[in-house]
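Data availability excerpt. The first of two example chains:
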Amino acid sequence: QVQLIESGGGLVQAGSSLRLSCVASGRTFSNVAMGWFRQAPGKEREFVATIIWSGTRHAYADSVKGRFTISRDNAKNTVWLQMNSLKPEDTAVYYCAAAGAGFYSEYVPRSENEMGYWGKGTLVTVSS
């Protein structure tokens, strides 16, 4: 059974940092892009950051650029999202995702339609 399990969410004050983790099990995702998306209350799910299989290319939403950093360790089947200088508008459920295709691709996906596997999410709440 393929699973993506997120952890690291919580309630923090504005300006704080959090590090989200996503551990994959059931198969390896070392050869595809992985990423993070988020869904705020009452809003559509949106792209946050993605990283290609090798970790050498990334993409970020403009709203998080310069504050969030995505990274991965294929040996641990894990991807992280380091979130610094958190703002109340970062409050959302954060979902880990893995591409369903594009093995060893240099293309950096940004659309949730390009992701084939999803975790159940972890809640991040940023108070002002």
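And the second chain:
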Amino acid sequence: QVQLVESGGGLVQAGGSLRLSCAASGSSFSLNTINWFRQAPGKQRELVAGITNGGRANFADSVKGRCIISRDNAKNTVYLQMNNLKPEDTAVYYCHTFLGSTNYWGQGTQVTVSS
């Protein structure tokens, strides 16, 4: 079993920055790939970034160059640093992982970017 809890969302002006955190429970955290997804109103959930257990990161083209993803296995936490935020980044951001065929999601944290 894995539980994921996101934090760090909020309201920010365009060009600003936010750091999202995903705190996980479960002894297998260090073995897991952790992903960040987002879902804007009326749109499908989309992958924003992911980081493997070895620290390899990948990013959606829409955020490449503006985001940094990192993990602290000692704290069971993954961070998503988002810079130069744009109004189109407004969405609920979800932390995600999987064990075998089971997906785990956090409750989400709202990010709102004003123009």
